[in-house]
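Lecture 7 notes: from sequence to structure.

We start with a single chain of 292 residues. Read the sequence below before looking at the structure.
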Amino acid sequence: MDVKVFRTFLEVAKEKHFGRAAENLYITQAAVSARIKQLESFFDAQLFIRDRNAIKLTSSGERLTSYAENMVRTLEQAKAELLLTKAHAIQLTVAGTPNVWDAYLQHCLSVVTEAFSGYAFRAETLSREQMHRALIERTLDIGVGVDPLKSEELACKKVVDLELVFVSTRHQTQQLALENSYIYVDWGTRFASEHALRHSKMPPPFLRTSTGRIALDFILEKGGACYLPVSMVEPFLESQQLHLVECSEPWLRPVYLSYRKDSAALQQIRQVESLLGITEPSTPYSLQQAAE
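Now the structure, written as tokens:
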């Protein structure tokens, strides 16, 4: 089965419209319909419910989606690695959660790519669950996050501690910061339990987000307070756009690196691991420019 058929299926599933899918893929709508019919014939199952004004996945189509995504991703990675082999290079795919990219991994990527000549890198933003699945399926070499990934097939090691500080757009006490426009940022499962103990009597947060960058941009524009890594807020503290909340204590959050124990690139992964272990969190270039 041609991978183009699965790409077409995923595009129709995303757009819920044959015409828009055809435009995005630069093919005719008739070609899109033919590919979907080919797929339905192959699996002997209806994949879409077609209506005048809407298209939606059947239960069979929903089940096929994850398999199609994995197939397309795996084939694309295989193609990239085979091309790299011709050039005598090694490709390592690195993924992190959005929080880890902003607070630590963005700077590390610059350090790693400078240190390892002859390597090619691919950088991805994935959720914890997506990283775990990609590592198991061998479509990812290195996963970095604030929660450890547990599996007998994976090695998981702490590489650094992120220092979270309670910051606000104005000088205020901890109690006032928690009561007025407090943004809760998800820094992992352990953080959630410790946060509940540390601030057990606080009112519900004004906003919840899984991404520190969203919280930072929001409070800089609208005002408020949240826990963010020093590496993200240091230039804003220096410019006095942000202030440390009075009587608040810093919070250390470990960052974990995970990889397959039987990875074919184990030697290279361990070299990257060693380099990450001695690289301190640093402010990403874009945030430095924003603070200036």
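The chain has twelve helices and eleven strands. Keep this in mind for problem set 3.
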